[in-house]
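Hi all, posting the design record for the shared folder.

TITLE: backbone redesign
STEP: 1 of 1
STRUCTURE INPUT:
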């Protein structure tokens, strides 16, 4: 009786083990953040440059016009980012205590009046608009 019971337990354990083995073989361990890179597939990576290639002629003309009005550049705007324009921009940046880079930084653009649009009427209602019945909500 004991041997028959032992045989059933052994048979059922073996059947359970046989049915469970394929599921263990199909699971893939996940690669952790510190695992070696040879576990991953190699894909072709491209490097993307964050630098601007060149200043557009329209923007160069705007900057040159503003530099002329400010007295840092003389002549007429040419639309090319040339050595005299770079020199004028460096002078403007140096006069304001900023780093003198060859390309204009945001502070210099704002100083020249070419920064973001800061028209207050676009963001806030005028006093007349705030008093009108159509502007209030009921």
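Okay, here is what came back for every position:
SEQUENCE:
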């Amino acid at each position: 009786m004991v041997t028959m019971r032992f045989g059933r337990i052994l048979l059922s354990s073996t059947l359970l083990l046989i049915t469970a083995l394929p599921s263990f073989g199909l699971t893939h361990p996940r690669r952790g953040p510190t695992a070696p890179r040879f576990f991953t597939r190699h894909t072709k990576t491209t490097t993307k440059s964050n630098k601007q290639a060149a200043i557009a002629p329209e923007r160069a003309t705007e900057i040159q016009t503003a530099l002329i009005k400010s007295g840092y550049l003389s002549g007429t705007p040419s639309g090319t980012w040339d050595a005299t324009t770079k020199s004028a921009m460096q002078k403007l940046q140096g006069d304001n205590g900023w780093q003198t880079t060859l390309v204009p930084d945001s502070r210099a653009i704002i100083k020249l009046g070419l920064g973001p649009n800061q028209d207050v009427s676009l963001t806030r209602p005028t006093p007349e608009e705030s008093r009108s019945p159509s502007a209030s909500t009921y």
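COMMENT: Residues 2-26 form the longest helix (25 residues).
Let me know if anyone wants the other runs.
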